[in-house]
Amino acid sequence: MSSAETIDQPTDPQPRRRLSRHDRHRQLLDVAWQIARDEGTEALTLGRLSELAGVTKPVVYDHFETRPGLLAALYREFDARQTIAMDAALAASQPSLADRATVIATSYVDCVLLQGREIPGVIAALAGSPELERIKREYEAAFIEKCRIALSPFTGAGTIAAAGLWAMLGAAEALSYAAASGDITAVEAKNELFETIVAMVARSMGGGTHPDHLRSTAGLASR
Q: Where's the HTH tetR-type domain (predicted)?
């Protein structure tokens, strides 16, 4: 056999390492986030996911069953990450309105920015399915309740109205997405959300304006 024939002879391919179900699920989620980031949520289909992940379609369908199932999994992961970050920050914060408002504003904005521009697209896609919209509302209600519990000690004898909490959440989403898109800075988003939270608590106290001792702390969210 000549040396040329030896060089042209194909080599045996390396055997593909089989991932555990947990590791495969993690890989598929990572690739799904990448697709949403690089190509947009509209391109995020189970077929496209199988193509980029290098697995067969049945593997992807086994993990998510449907495209709404995939979107729900992405949203749950985002929410879990946000919840962990916020719970840890609340536990480490001082028992003051300024600190609690700073934690809520900072953790919300930071979590959206950490995930990147893809999360607004994923959340927008959730509105296209009644089932996904229900999942989103459940997580939103849990977030609002967490905020209510964290802020209630500073309302005196008053209570925080549900309308105010939902308005706060709307502001949090809008400001975070604007920061993720580069329309405003992260500091601007956090400071504006801080102001919104403090004003909401002040209205719950019946004052209608910021308590005087918070006027000098409105920049805490820039940390």
A: 22-82
